[in-house]
């Protein structure tokens, strides 16, 4: 390396040392060396499980729901007692075990 | 190297790594911070692995440089100067001549990189070649041209200051 090269190098070294000195004032950002985890997903996991259980419970119980009739049914029956006397028996029911067509009596009695 | 050891070494190199990232991003501080985060994420996810063939600093600097170039290409910000293109030194306006950063930005890309790696970060030409991913002979050529060009720029700056 000749004298000229040495001067050239020194010139450059001076330039860079001045620059480095100036850069000491640079604001270095915080060291953030960590994996970006999607922690929100894990936070919501128990809530999701609970919601699924609730939904399942609701679906299971909703099948067993009994629907009440809007009004009770009144059944008027003509009954013949042991004295051969006929009388009406009136009763109310919320359901009907056997259903007979209202016109079926016409076939048997008349 | 174990993950904890690597983390400690990277922590020690953080300030230098940030400055290098900033230099790779045309001195854009926000972009440099973003690039450095991408680099750390690459290391954590194992996309960038340290195989121990070079020093940690050389490897980290190479990853930063590669990530910055990748990002510039993605964003279409890259306008590289031709490698063979030599510097045309012209009279610069006052505000351009003033700062070190502006002065180095006047060099072609590869010359700028080799100057920064050797003179600013204290790497050898061999290590600079590793960071830049080019042959040592090519690095030497860039280095010689860069020294001449930068010296001329510095002299121009001084002459300008004296005249002013």
From TrEMBL, chain A:
Domain of life: Bacteria
Sorted UniProt keywords: Membrane, Transmembrane, Transmembrane helix
Transmembrane segments: 41-60
Full protein name: Uncharacterized protein
Organismal lineage: Bacteria, Pseudomonadati, Bacteroidota, Cytophagia, Cytophagales
From TrEMBL, chain B:
Pfam family of the protein (one): Sigma70_r2
UniProt entry keywords in alphabetical sequence: DNA-binding, Sigma factor, Transcription, Transcription regulation
BP GO annotations: DNA-templated transcription initiation
A GO term, aspect molecular function: sigma factor activity
PROSITE patterns recorded: SIGMA70_ECF
Domain RNA polymerase sigma factor 70 region 4 type: 102-150
Coiled-coil features, chain-numbered ranges: none
RNA polymerase sigma-70 region domain ranges (all copies): 20-76
Family affiliation: Belongs to the sigma-70 factor family. ECF subfamily.
Protein name: RNA polymerase sigma factor
Native source organism of the sequence: Mongoliibacter ruber
């Amino acid at each position: 390396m000749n004298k000229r090269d040495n001067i050239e190098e020194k010139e450059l070294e001076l330039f860079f040392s001045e620059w480095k000195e100036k850069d000491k004032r640079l604001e270095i950002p915080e060291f953030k060396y960590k994996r970006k985890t999607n922690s929100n997903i894990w936070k919501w996991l128990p809530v999701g499980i609970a919601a699924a259980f609730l939904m399942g419970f609701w679906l299971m119980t909703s099948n067993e729901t009994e629907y009440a009739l809007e009004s009770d049914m009144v059944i008027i029956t003509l009954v013949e007692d042991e004295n051969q006397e006929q009388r009406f028996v009136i009763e109310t029911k919320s359901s009907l075990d056997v259903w007979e067509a209202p016109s079926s009596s016409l076939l048997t009695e008349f | 190297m174990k993950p904890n050891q690597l983390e400690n070494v990277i922590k020690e190199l953080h300030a230098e790594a940030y400055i290098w990232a900033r230099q790779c991003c045309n001195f854009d501080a926000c972009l440099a911070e973003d690039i450095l985060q991408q680099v750390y994420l690459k290391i954590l996810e194992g996309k960038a692995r340290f195989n121990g063939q070079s020093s940690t600093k050389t490897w980290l600097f190479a990853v930063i440089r590669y990530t910055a170039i990748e990002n510039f290409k993605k964003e279409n910000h890259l306008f590289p100067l031709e490698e063979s293109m030599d510097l045309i030194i012209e009279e610069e306006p006052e505000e351009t001549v003033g700062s070190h950063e502006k002065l180095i930005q006047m060099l072609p890309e590869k010359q700028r990189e080799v100057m920064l790696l050797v003179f600013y970060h204290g790497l050898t030409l061999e290590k600079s070649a590793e960071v830049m991913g080019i042959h040592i002979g090519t690095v030497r050529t860039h280095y010689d041209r860069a020294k001449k060009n930068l010296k001329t720029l510095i002299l121009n700056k001084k002459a300008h200051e004296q005249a002013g």
